[in-house]
Design goal:
Order of helices and strands of chain A: EEEEEEEEEEE
Strand content of chain A: over 45%
Shape of chain B: globular
Shape of chain A: globular
Strand content of chain B: over 45%
Largest sheet of chain B: 6 strands, mixed
Number of helices of chain B: 0
Distance between the termini of chain B: 39 Å
Oligomer: heterodimer
Distance between the termini of chain A: 37 Å
Number of helices of chain A: 0
Number of strands of chain A: 11
Largest interface: A-B, 21 and 22 residues
Radius of gyration of chain A: 13 Å
Number of strands of chain B: 11
Chain lengths: 114, 111
């Protein structure tokens, strides 16, 4: 089975712009979670989607949003980018009912905000 | 109360030695404690996980020791190999809800 794929792998944006990141889960996985990884804060949970509905949300401002499509693919959007949004954004998928217990991570999208 | 404190930040171990990474938590409602391994340029990969009703779980060279009363758990890597050099994260979660990660330990195994 193919693993979790994320596109693009690298992205450079300017402060104030918005960005959309994409995640394709492992075939058959219906839960998709997003994480932000930075050297200072480590790995932080953003949100989880299951069957096109946001099921859980971390402590991030409303500039961070996401959605999930009927094929379980997910997108994450960050509006009005700030320098502090520079990070590795990771997507993880799991089987129905697996939630966060049996997650498989993608390689991440490295976002740099200048 | 939501924090998971991980130590040490970095660790150097001789090949064949035992690598030990520790984590401590506050929230007694946590019911799932996984460890993840991350190589440069890759996403984290689930290594091994434990529930609080078990004091130890072993998978190959990797063992989790869990001390419920002390609210601590640790990862032991036996016969450490250069290929084990990576960053390791402990984590905790409850009710299949959001997961809290430790800050990570950068492990380097000397050949």
């Amino acid at each position: 089975k193919a693993g979790v794929t994320q596109t693009p792998r690298y992205l450079i944006k300017t402060r104030g712009q918005q960005v959309t990141l994409s995640c394709s889960p492992i075939s058959g996985h219906r839960s998709v979670s997003w994480y932000q990884q930075t050297p200072g804060q480590g790995l932080q949970f953003l949100f989880e989607y299951f069957s096109e509905t946001q099921r859980n949300k971390g402590n991030f401002p409303g500039r961070f949003s996401g959605r999930q499509f009927s094929n379980s693919r997910s997108e994450m959007n960050v509006s009005t980018l700030e320098l502090g949004d520079s990070a590795l954004y990771l997507c993880a998928s799991s089987l129905e009912g697996g939630g966060i217990y049996e997650q498989y991570f993608g390689p991440g999208t490295r976002l740099t905000v200048t | 109360q939501q924090q998971v404190k991980q130590s040490p930040q970095s660790l150097i171990v001789q090949k064949g030695g035992i690598s030990i990474i520790n984590c401590a938590y506050e929230n007694t409602a946590f019911d799932y404690f996984p460890w993840y391994q991350q190589f440069p340029g890759k996403g984290p990969a689930l290594l091994i996980a434990i529930r609080p009703d078990v004091s130890e779980k072993k998978e190959g060279r990797f063992t989790i020791s869990f001390n419920k009363s002390a609210k601590q758990f640790s990862l032991h890597i036996m016969d450490s190999q250069p290929g084990d050099s990576a960053t390791y994260f402990c984590a905790a979660s409850f009710r299949d809800d959001k997961i809290i990660f430790g800050k990570g330990t950068r492990l380097h195994i000397l050949p």
